[in-house]
């Protein structure tokens, strides 16, 4: 089966398509993609839905490597409201 693994930053992204055996999990896809993510991975998603490293994959899935939030969303709203 083929799976796409994507890592994104503001303004750019890196994507790799990997072939995996049936029954592969997210952790297998991340290892096969060999993206230089390191400790920057805060979580995983499959087509935008939160998932765990042990989540089984299906042919055609898109695995997204999630980064940690840089600013708490509530704090960001407060800052924007304060500017107005």
UniProtKB/TrEMBL annotation:
Transmembrane segments: none annotated. It holds the Pfam family Ub-RnfH. Belongs to the UPF0125 (RnfH) family. This is UPF0125 protein J5837_13810. It comes from Pseudoxanthomonas helianthi.
């Amino acid at each position: 089966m083929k799976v796409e693994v994507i890592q994104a930053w503001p303004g750019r992204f890196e994507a790799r398509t990997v072939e995996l055996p049936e029954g592969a999990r997210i952790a297998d896809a991340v290892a096969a993609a060999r993206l230089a993510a390191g400790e920057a991975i805060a979580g995983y998603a499959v087509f935008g839905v939160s998932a765990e490293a042990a989540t089984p994959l299906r042919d055609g899935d898109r695995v997204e490597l999630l980064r940690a939030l840089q600013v708490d969303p509530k704090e960001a709203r407060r800052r924007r409201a304060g500017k107005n």
